[in-house]
Amino acid sequence: MQALLLLLCAVSSVYPVPVDLELLPKTNTCGYDSCPTRQPGVLNVHIVPHTHDDVGWLKTVDQYYYGSKNSIQKAGVQYILDSVIKELWEDPKRRFIYVETAFFWKWWVRQTPATQSKVHTLVNQGRLQMVGGAWSMNDEAASHYQSTIDQFTWGLKKLNQTFGHCGRPRVGWQIDPFGHSREFASLLSMMGYDGLFLGRIDYQDKRNRLLHRNMEMVWRGDDALGKSSDIFTGVLHNTYSPPPGFCFDVLCADEPIIDDPDSPMYNVESKVDQFLSVCRNISEKYISNNILITMGDDFNYQDAAMWFKNLDKLIEYANLKAAKDNMNITLFYSTPNCYLKAIKDANPTLPTKKDDFFPYASDSTAYWTGYFTSRPTTKYFEREGNNYLQMVKQLQVLANLEKHNEFVLNELKSAMGVMQHHDAITGTEKQHVTHDYERLLNQAIDDALIIAKQAFNKLTQKDDTKPPLFDFQRCHLNESSCHVSENSDKFVVTIYNPLGWSVREPIRIPVGNGQYEVYDSDGKQIKTQLVPIPNKVKQIPTRVSKATQEIVFIIDLKPLSYKSIYIKKINRTKRNTNNYDFYSNINNNFWGHIKEPYINKIEDVQTDKETIDTIKAIPFAPVHSEDISLIEDRETNLDILKDGKNDAEVMELEKFLKDSRRKGKGKDNVRIVDSYPNFNEDEMRMLADEPRTVEKFDDEAVIGNQFYNLDINTASGLINKVTLRDHTKLNFTINMYYYSGSCGDNQGTDRRSSGAYIFRPLANNPVKLATQRTELINGDLVKEFRVSLSPSGFTNTKVYDGLNFIETEWIVGPIPIDDEVGKEYVIKYETNILNNGAFYTDSNGRQILARKLNFRPQWNVTLAEPIPGNYYPVTNEIYIENKDLRVTVLPDRSEGGTSLIEGEVELMLHRRLLCDDAFGVGEALNETAKGLGLVVRGKHRVLISKDDITIKKNVLGLHLGPQLLFSDAKNIKYDEWLKLNNEYSFVTKELPNGVHLLTLEPFDSQLLIRLENYLDKSGSIEVDLKDIFKDITITGLKETMLAANIFVDEYDKWYWNNERKVNENRVTSQDLKVKLNAKQIRTFIANFEDKRDVKKFKKPTGMPDFDRGDNDD
């Protein structure tokens, strides 16, 4: 090989060497025009230098950017970009790609004009290319399509405004997410990406694809959208790392290329032979004469000179060797864009894929399905963040607020973009990074709420010059905690509906003891029900609250509207109109309050000085709703209370109960109770330490509403069946279980631990939680069946008056680990539906995919782990069905789900594990709060229906539920409040069934509007935007691709396998009628005028220049 150095000049004149000047791009050419010239008839090896920079993982975002805390991981993104720009500038042959706009933008705004000018030149010449381009490389399992679209829009807008069309990414680069969703492929296609590259797919799938040379395919993103959703998809050979032995980074230990012939370490010949062998092996797995080899890894290129110096040598000597030996192979610097262009020019016949890449397994016992549920409170907080973001984006437009507010709006966009990262929403980061993610989002929400405060003060007073009347605070309603409602005798709740149709929603406000009146926006009193807050909620360690009960009422909200509700505490004697039965059935538990077993209704009589509790017991829930018969309580065994010290008090209690029964023998079996037993506080506390089994009532009861009747057994804590309003009966039970998590040293597949990524139970059969205590609340507005479970579980099944869902509130934690075994809690909805192993889950909250137990559509799967191997991500819904019935469960956050047994839907709720799974995070997933295991509270909504519109509206209604803001009203009288503009809908009419206003936000001086047809099957639906908004007139539209970074008339879709172009519905600037086909999302930049002040708020009629900045040097 040493002789090669002497022959270099002579050989280069005889054999083609594809790194000479003819391969360099023309000045200011970018995109596909900047690609190097390929040679026909030879193997073209595209060398792609890159770095993978996690937007938080083992370190926080700032720690990664600034390179601090290197004891955790040696990584500093600012040094990567500094170093790469320097090396690219020195040699025009070199190429580099960058992905994460969050990091790039943080670096960009800190650069000098001279450096920025260099970067512009590199981008304009295609030497530095942006791929992906979203704010972060998002997860594809737990992320929701709305948040994915938002974070792409935000990242791509930054690139577009900075670099123009040369900064536009052409390919998606999803090299590290742990599985890939079909909906994400559809979204990328709608955004105008030409291709998508993946790093991780299931090990069996990859083995099969390598065997059959199917590593590249056409992925159909959505059946309803057809070939318009097709996108080229390639699976990278080595995930995203360099071939073994060729990592030339400061973090690596591989040998550099030493080309000094006099050195005893000279290794050019061996290195080149090794690399060319790798290239030949890879080429055998792909169908064209082009292969892509990634040269980079996590946080590589902090010293880019090491990489480029060795890559320069590798390319030079490999080409020299190939030319000398007639090997028909050539190496050159390239990018994913240029590789994709080469594949397109080759025009191969590619297989079509119509499913997804879930679940992902890296070996037979490493199913990456645990992260579908990991860190459930973070997943819930991310969803809250999205709801606040949609609200403030809409209000910024609808209230016509000042542009400077967009600074805090953009802060929230950035925080939400970070949360989509594949180590953020997934819960696969270190604990201190979780805290930092939540800090960023919490601060961004607080800052962005200034928009809501300004908007509601302006809208309610119809004047933005007046001082604000209200403060509009958010509350921790997931903990039944709210400082305003608990500490104010008068307060206002402002409720915002972001959806384009009317909604009816239950509202629950935590308050202290006492009675309250609730007034609608027009001053009419709203029917309410006071419900005690469950003890399990009060015991949440992080909860800071004095609230003991919740005001429950049902609210009707107009489309895209707000409504103000006035609530005041009653300081006079008032008969309680909140009729509900309170029933407690306790098994093996202890006293909480001695009153609970026999007090069914509390009437508060308040004076100026004190509150006096009186008791009135009313009938319990009927056994059958048809005959409305009443359950009579059994004789009470009070012997368990007698300990020789308090027998007299127990006898008094026994006499009290007997007297109440005698009084209840009259009409309607209503038991009238006049006073409590005469116990003082010390005696009450003494009794509270005794076993809680005081009185046991009949075991069977029914709770229901206009849609469902649930037969329940209060002794077992089980629902037995549900009867629909057409009298169809379905066996229906809710149970909670836990899997014990495996804990090993990960030194073999049989010693794999369950961890943040991996779900690996010790046994296939989970442990069922035992019923400890049941409570029944039977009121006019809500009926609840509360079941305390051991260990550490709680369910509360609710049916609300007039609402078409069954709601299951669940609480898990602190998960016990005294036995030194981690546990993973699941809930099962058990029915007698025969679903034949089939079930259905959503893809990122949008389309539905069919799943089959122990099955993969494109290969014959072998499952060594049948439980985690059948788990799938559930973002918004999972269901089973037969020909007559469908049972759909909607979670309030992303969870893992499956149907392992006929008729069951299983969802994982919470995980607490004691071992790391050895996939990099280096910590066990053992979340704590206040020194105890983390307690998580959530809810599911269950629908038994096959009506698609009903289901989809419930899906969107839970995902984008009404937002509540609270204000103390001590400085405003009720009569003054009544004069305010307490309700307003911003639209002239509801959107048609099937249409969702996905996006409404300011877009520079214009508006960004997205309309979505959420139905899988429908004809086209038309929406006329001309007069849809009350205060805004849309004067012109121009349609863009989904991410709003390119106009549709500037985009030519790439079709594969000789497919022909699809005719698309287009709308002109003058024609404001928009047609939406099934599953279609259409995006528009709109000119508008505000009717409230046309002269002041008239917007320019020209469309934005999407090439801003592309001529900057």
The CATH topology of the largest domain corresponds to 7-stranded beta/alpha barrel
Q: Name the helicity range.
A: 10-25%
Which class of secondary structure composition applies to the elements? alpha+beta
Q: Please summarize the sheet with the most strands.
A: 10 strands, antiparallel
CATH architecture of the largest domain: Alpha-Beta Barrel
Q: How many domains would you count in the coordinates?
A: 4
Give the neighbour order of strands across the main sheet: 19-27-28-29-30-41-36-35-32-33
Total number of strands = 49
What is the alpha-carbon Rg in Å? 32 Å
Low-confidence stretches: 1-26, 587-645, 656-697, 1095-1113
Average pLDDT works out at 88
Q: Give the overall form.
A: globular
Count of alpha and pi helical runs:
21
Task: Report the end-to-end length measured between terminal Cα atoms.
Answer: 43 Å
Find the CATH superfamily of the largest domain. Answer: Glycoside hydrolase 38, N terminal domain
Strand content: 25-35%
What's the CATH first level of the largest domain? Alpha Beta
Quick rundown:
This protein is α+β, with helices and mostly antiparallel strands and about 1100 residues long.
Q: Could you characterize what this model shows?
A:
- The protein has four domains: 39-133 and 169-357, Glycoside hydrolase 38, N terminal domain (7-stranded beta/alpha barrel, Alpha-Beta Barrel); 387-572 and 963-985, Immunoglobulin-like (Sandwich); 735-768 and 803-957, Golgi alpha-mannosidase II, domain 4 (Beta-galactosidase, Chain A, domain 5), CATH 2.70.98; 995-1096, Sandwich (Immunoglobulin-like), CATH 2.60.40.1360.
- The chain contains 21 helices and 49 strands.
- The chain is an alpha+beta fold and 1113 residues long.
- The strands form twelve sheets. The chain has a ten-stranded antiparallel β-sheet with strand order 19-27-28-29-30-41-36-35-32-33. Strands 22, 23, 24, 25, 26, 31, 34, 37 and 38 form a nine-stranded antiparallel β-sheet that branches. Strands 4-5-7-6-10 form a five-stranded mixed β-sheet, with helices on both faces.
- InterPro entries: Gal_mutarotase_sf_dom, GH38_C, Glyco_hydro/deAcase_b/a-brl, Glyco_hydro_38_C, Glyco_hydro_38_cen, Glyco_hydro_38_cen_sf, Glyco_hydro_38_N, Glyco_hydro_38_N_sf.
- This is Alpha-mannosidase.
- Its cofactor is Zn(2+).
- Residues 366-441 form the Glycoside hydrolase family 38 central domain.
- It catalyses: Hydrolysis of terminal, non-reducing alpha-D-mannose residues in alpha-D-mannosides.
